[in-house]
Amino acid sequence: MGSSESAAEQSDASGGSSWFADYFGFDEHGTDLKTELLAGLTTFLTMSYIVAVNPQIMAQTRDNEGNVTSPGIALSGYTDDQVIQMLAVVTILASVAAILVMAFYANRPFAQAPGLGLNAFFAFTVVGAMGIPWQTALAAVVTEGVLFIVLTAVGAREYVIGLIPEPVKFSVGTGIGLFLGIIGLEAMGIITGEAGTIVALSSIAESPAAIVSAVGLFLTVALYARGVKGSIVIGIVLTTLAGFALSFAGIGSGSLSGDFITEGAFVAGELPQATYDITPLAGAFLSGFQDVEAFTFALVVFTFFFVDFFDTAGTLVGVGQAGDFLDEDGELPDIDKPLMADAVGTTTGGMLGTSTVTTYIESATGVEEGGRTGMTALVVATLFLVSLVFVPLAAAIPLYASHIALVVVAILMLRNVVEVQWDDITHAVPAGLTIMVMPFTFSIAYGIAAGILSYPIVKTAAGEFDETNAGQWLLAGAFLVYFAVRTSGIVG
Asked: Localized where (predicted)?
């Protein structure tokens, strides 16, 4: 009774005994408005880098000669900078849509945004390697989102979880980490694909941009290790400013948001004119349903769904543990509500023009600051809306700076590998294949497929057939057919 009164007094003192305190239940959760505001600000600072990074990954970029340097979304009649700004607006709106559902429906202090890994899968694998139109890729995102909503609404997540082998679940994060790491290091000029060894160290000492990006990376991880809030954002900004300074000093040449690997240079110029009109992107997914190849489309949808579902579920449990939200069985009560927030965000994002939205592990920083209710999430959503003012800056940040975030996140994702039972060969094989195939084929989908395909085979070979189920064999058979068809050239 005393603790409840104390919480109520804190709420009164901070001005939170009004509608916010009543709606979000400050007294029940032992928090107050001041604490929730600080928690929301902390979460936003740690994840706000996505406003600049997601557009840089999702948009197609070209060099000064018009050659495509990075696959992704391109709009006829619009410059790369304009498309990047449109995607920055869409990134913000999709994030806000998901976070508002989290705040008012789930009443949890978790925040969402387009996920790193899935946006790279969208651009580099689906659009780039597989040659699928970006409109069709968006259609797959919307389809995945609707599927997520339906399965969450009917409570079918337990059945879906049961179909996916445990070693594959635990290894996907590490595989995605390696996938992101290659993309990030290549964009920073640290590694190159133009070598007889397939992947090699670039001539870093000959590239001012590569030197600055490498210094920026070490600065960022140092800030992160020190526990500095917003360390990734700070690292990106400082690296960008350093590049601009050297550019103005006459070191190197290139375009404002240019690909320094092609141009070999820093950039200097005026900020692009603000672009907020997203009508060319919004609704583009509808045309993506035309002339789709069913099996390939299904694989893309499955991959989006799989990574989104398990990444979100894992993040929710992890952040929930930090906030002491879990029950005695280690489960997050009413997890379907925050899952619904992700599903709504993904569907909205796909309709507007971006990849899958997922819950961010950075939400843990806000929880550690005392965030306990949806008020924390509401603060994050509000700050995302405020960041619309800075949309033009998204196109001014060069790849060598923005992709530092990918490498830092990649390093953090590698820790998931400790969850795999490496001393059990029936776990080691599917986990190992999942992790290796993703970066080596530049496809998250192929990595997941390889792991699922191998699991029932090694289980049966080890005399553990009874530990597999019919659904796993059906998935394995489907992926075997897909690999055979796709690698034979029948599917383009």
From this structure: Cell membrane
